[in-house]
Structure formats: structure tokens, C-alpha cells
Amino acid sequence: MSDANAATASVIASAPLASEIDALLSTQLIVAWAGESGSNDDPSTKRMGWWRTDLIGESAQYELEELLPNTWRWVMFQSVREAARLHDAAVRSKDHDPDRLVTLFSQGFVIDEKVEDRLRQLKLAGTDPAEAFPVLGTMVSDGWSVDAFQHWASSFGKESFTEVPAGRRLKGKPPEKLAELTSRLVAGLSPESGTYPMPHFRRNT
Q1: I need a labelling partner for 164 at 20 to 30 A (CA). Which of 81, 93, 120, 185 fits?
Q2: Confidence of residue 204 (pLDDT cuts 50, 70, 90)
Q3: ∠ Cα 189 139 51 (to 5°)
């Protein structure tokens, strides 16, 4: 096992897996939704504009609901999460050693696989995303508000960081407990940024 995977396995071993993984997945979906640019034809769909997608909204719903009547809600969130993950990877590539960066969408193979498995499980179970993750459901149903999103992010605390080419490098080592790691990465999204700020920690090994 590599040093990075060994460190990740240590995080997993110290965390209550179900709640920790669900909290991380919920956070990823909220950030992915908030980061969309929305539609140029409909100002009401505009959000942070970190990735150029409009995957969660009425236009996508109309197309998917007929094709995938049982899973269309999850497919929308799964698609926008993938867009966010790819953008995150592109930003990480600006670092000289991107594999050492820990972000909301890249936490090492072990954790990333567990999150993917959980998403597939919820999708197959047919659970409504709003029921699985009430905070996500409330934010989406209330409609977009940059103030509400920033209030959510800042509710996790305030982080000190250094601006680097790959985003906001948070000070200190990545926390061993997954819950704390997730919370600090979310807190790093505040203050507001016109581009994806990618809060991250750097692993030593």
C-alpha cells in the first residue's frame, strides 16, 4: 500500500463510515450544484459559475424524467458532481505534485471509492436525494442565493489559507478524522470567489 493510501486508510479507520461518507457526499453535491453556471437564456438559473454546466434545473429534468423515471434526480446530481470532480482535477493539475492535494472531490482512492459506492447505492435504492440529504434538498428547493450558500459554507468555521496557483491551501496538516476534514474544506470556500477556490490540504507523503 502506498503512503497516500495508508494515510487515507487511517482516516477511514477512525471515522464512523456511514455518517462520515454521507456527510462528504452531501457536501460534494451541494458544492457541485452551487458551482454551476446555469443557462445563458435563463438568468434565474445562474449560480457561482465555477463550471460551465446547467445540469440541475427544469431543462435537464424534462429530458431525463421521461428517459429515467426512477433515477433522473440522482442522474442530475451524479452528472453535476462529475463535472465538479473533473474541474477540481484540472485545478489540482496546476500544482507540481497534484496527487498530494486533498480536496472535497479528491480524498484518496479508499475514500473516493466509498463515496462512489454510496452514491450508486442511493441511486439504485430509489431514495429521493432530498430525503437522503435534507440540507441539499432545502437549499435546492429554496432556490439559488449566493448569500445562503456563503452562510452555509461559513457556518463550518473560518479557515486561514494561502493563495497558490491551485487554489486556497489551508494551513496545517489534513485532519485524520473525515468529519473534521470535510468541515474544514467547506469552510475554506468562504469568502466568496469568482472562480473555484479549491480549498485543499497538502499531504506530507
Answers
A1: 81
A2: confident
A3: 50
DSSP 167: E
CB 89 within 8 A of CB 106: yes
- Residues in the chain, overall count: 205
DSSP 142-188: H---HHHHHHHHHTT----EEEETTEEEESSPPPSSHHHHHHHHHHT
Residue 45 amino acid letter: T
User: How many other CB atoms are there within 10 angstroms of residue 118's CB atom?
Assistant: 17
Q: Which of 112, 153, 140 is nearest to 27 (CA)?
A: 153
Count other C-beta atoms under 10 Å from residue 71's C-beta.
Answer: 15
- Structure confidence by residue, pLDDT tens digits, 149-196: 999 999 999 999 999 999 999 999 999 999 999 999 999 999 999 999
State the DSSP H helix or E strand holding residue 99, giving kind and residue range, or none if neither.
none
How far apart (Å, rounded) are the C-alpha atoms in residues 119 and 25?
Answer: 8
Q: Cα-atom radius of gyration of the chain, to the nearest Å? A: 17
The whole-angstrom separation of Cα 45 and Cα 28 is 19
Pairing of strands 167-170, 161-164: antiparallel
Residues contacting 82, CB < 8 A, separation 6+: none
H or E element at residue 104? none
CA distance 133 to 26: 6
Q: What is the largest CA-CA distance in the chain?
A: 50
Domain positions in the chain: 3-202
* Amino acid identity at 30: I
Query: Which pTM value belongs to this model?
Result: 0.88
